[in-house]
Design a protein that fits this description.
The protein has helices at about 50-60, 95-100, 155-160, 255-265; strands at about 1-5, 20, 30-35, 45, 50, 70, 90, 110-120, 130, 135-150, 175-180, 190-195, 210, 230-235, 240-245, 250-255. The chain has 4 helices and 16 strands. It is of the alpha+beta class. The strands form 4 sheets. Strands 1, 2, 7, 8, 9, 10, 11, 12 and 16 form a 9-stranded mixed beta sheet that branches. The protein has a 3-stranded antiparallel beta sheet with strand order 13-15-14, with no helix packed on it. Strands 3-6 form a two-stranded antiparallel ribbon. The two termini are about 20 Å apart. It is globular and about 50 Å long.
Amino acid sequence: MKLILSRKGMDSTAGKMPSPILPDGTLLSLPIPDKNSGLSYGDIAYNGKSYMEIIQELNPTFDFDECKCCHLDPDIREDITHPVNWKAAFGQHNASAVYLDNNGVGEGDLFLFYGWFRQSEYDSNGKLRFVKGAKDLHIIYGYMQVGSVIRSVEDIKNSYGYHPHANITDNSNRLYIACDVLSFADGVKGYGTLKYNKCNVLTKDGFSRSKWEIPQCFYSDDVTISLNGDFFKTDENGVKYFQSPLRGQEMVFNVTDGIMDWIKTIIL
């Protein structure tokens, strides 16, 4: 099994705002804008409130004229609006798909999705707002183990027309479909979203969100990382941290016993 850490949701470029940690601990990843998707932020809702309403409350200056539609991908949250024939899935194309292909990502491999989050609260009128002074964090908010990979443009369009990658026509288009249950946990669905917990916060305490605290098992010589570079850093005070990659890049790791234990802690 391979582990893929995949950065998704709004960021400082796409959407230009963090996703909220809701008051009940829900990590509600906000999908990035996509003019061509045909799915507006008003079309999807969580807990009786549309994503448009949620975004308006958190960021009243958000430009819906420029960013009306969204790219709901990965599509792994069950408790939002979906068509009857929905299946949890994640798409990639162009260089990102080729990168995953080149690293042998396929059936049985596990995506852990992380993004930029900030704590939110309700004001006196029951409207959401970000907590003043709340930290910006990278947090793992969801997971998906791959059950199959759809590579045919026609198959994606005909069978998964609700997914944003159904609108992509180049031959590098890929749709990763979730397996029914996890191979390493009896009875646990092969996809899902997580609530806030310290164990799935990547950002190191006291550091900027891109500087992570990751388990010692990742420092082993037995662990390979798909991207080139020195990610294991030490600051001027001798404190170690892991420098996360630039926006849009996914990291593929081989799964050792130690990393599997970490994965189970996060998901289970």
